[in-house]
Every structure is written in C-alpha cells, then in structure tokens.
Amino acid sequence: MPHRVVVLALDGLLPFELGIPQRIFGRSIGSEPLNRGRKLYEVVTCSIRPPGPVSTDADFTITVENGPEALATADTVVIPASYELGPVYTEGRLTDELAAAFAYIRPGTRMVSICTGSYVLAAAGYLDGRPATTHWSSADHFQQLFPAVRVDPDVLFIDDGDVLTSAGVAAGIDLCLHIVRRDHGAAVANDVARRTVVPPHRDGGQAQYIQRPVPDAGSSATTTARAWALARLESPILLRDMAQQESMSVRTFTRRFREEAGISPVQWLTQQRVELARRLLESTDLSVDRIARDAGFGTATSLRQHLQAALGVSPTAYRRTFRSTPAGAPGR
Known about the structure:
Elements: E1 3-8, H1 15-26, E2 41-46, E3 52-55, E4 61-64, E5 76-79, H2 87-90, H3 96-102, E6 110-114, H4 118-123, E7 131-132, H5 139-145, E8 150-151, E9 157-159, E10 163-166, H6 170-184, H7 186-196, H8 223-230, H9 239-245, H10 250-261, H11 265-283, H12 288-294, H13 300-311, H14 315-324
Parallel strand pairs: 1-2, 1-5, 5-6, 6-10, 7-8
Antiparallel strand pairs: 3-4, 9-10
Helix pairs in contact: 1-6, 6-7, 8-9, 9-10, 11-12, 11-13, 12-13
C-alpha cells in the first residue's frame, strides 16, 4: 500500500502551501523493479470538522471531502500554514476542535508542518524539547509563546526524525522533497523536482532569506561557473578557477555568488559533492573509497566526515538504509 499522507486544512489556510504536499508526494513515482510506475504516496486532505467548506486567505473557499477521522489513517500528517489559528497563535493552546482532531492521530505517526503550521504542532506538544523552525517573521513570537521549543529562525527546514518543520512557502517544497528523498532516495526526489521545475535539493541548513539587495538585472551571473564545477566535481576546484569562468576577481565572484545562492562557493561545492556521493551510494556498488574519489572528497575519511556533518550518518549506514528499505516504506 502507498504511504498515506493526510493534509490538515485549517480555516484561513494559504492555498499555495496546501497544494505543496499533493504536488510533491502525489507526483512521486516508484523507480525500483517492485514499484516501478506506481504512486508511492496517497495524499488525502481533511478538515477538523465534517466534510464541507474551509476558508482561505484568498477570495475563495475550498471544499474538503474528509473529516478529522481521516487523521487516524495517516502514516504522515502535514499541517500547512493558516492565518486564523486563534488561541493556537495567541495563547499557545489547541482549540477543542483541534484537540479532538489530534486525538485521532496514531502514536508514531510522522508529523510535518509548513510555515506557521508549526504553531499547531507546538501547541499539541510535539515540539517540546525539540529543534524546530517556522517563518522567520514569526520566529521571535513563536519562541516567546513556546519556550520549551529550540527555535532556529535561520534554516529552511529541520528534520528531527518523526517530527519535521519548515520555514515559509517555498521551504515547504524543500521539506517535502527532502522527505521523498529520505523515504525513497535521490532518484525519485530528483524526478519529482524536475517535473515540478524546482531545484532538486536545497540543504535544510541554508538561510531562509538573503538580507542583501537583489543583483542588478545587468550584472553577471555565476551560472557558467557552477556548470563548469559540476562537470568536474571529482577534481580539485579552486575558488580562483571558478572566478575565472566568469572573468571576475575572486572577491567579486564570491560576493555575487552569495547574492545569488545565499551561501559561499565553498559551501555550495561541498553540498554538490555530498549530493553526488549520496547518489552513488544509493545507485551503485562502488566502494566507499572509490565514491570518495569520484565525488571529489579524495579519501574515505573525508567523505565520512562530510556525510556525518551533513546527514548524521556514515556512508555505510546511509547505503544500508536505502538498500534495505522495502519499496513504499519510509527510510529512517
């Protein structure tokens, strides 16, 4: 059976964010022999009331055909943002309707929030003592309302195992793609991202926003340098080599790269090499030493250090997780 994702639609919801789980999970198709061509997730939307209309922050309402009982069938629950959270936002407590709806959720269900949906998870007690994030503009209020939560206002999303939280809007796409990648590997997640026309991977620790002016339309981009680097990740790449691809000084190139990517060229290179190593660990039987060389880390020790820093696991444990995950089951 496909993994069932139940999306909780609350009054005042943001239509864009409500649609993210359906778009990402609903378009995830199996690529392994046992599930090739099959949908890996079943996405269901429910309300905290019997089936009927739910208001949005736009000039239209939506009709939800499932009541809160659907939450009892969920393997993963996703809570998008809402602008009408009432006492959840002002007092940090669930309404009676929300509390009754949450009572349907089975122990062990994976819980996910997008943007200010994190308020609901916090009010329900899921985030006590845990790291979490939310939209940067709400982070201070969120921390004051829920002092037991370890709030990180700067990151795109946080994966804390069975509870995951994201920043606003597009970060919800990043988090859902991350979940697909965690459950079924990079190949499936990259396929969904390609068909959705979004970047296949933005690291969760990346900054939510860049507090710099948008580069002038006529300024040089760093696209050529990135493409050049991606074609030779296995080789040593110096910052001056990348800058030369754009005919810039190292200082100018570094500044413009940060303006466009939100991270330094060195951080970006490390991310790309980690991603390449992940794909090779998932899809080949190459030795860890060979993968370390092919991904540009040089030695297995260096690969282990970078993978541990990025994912918290060793190359061997990462490969074992994906090689031993049954089709359709979430990888832990």
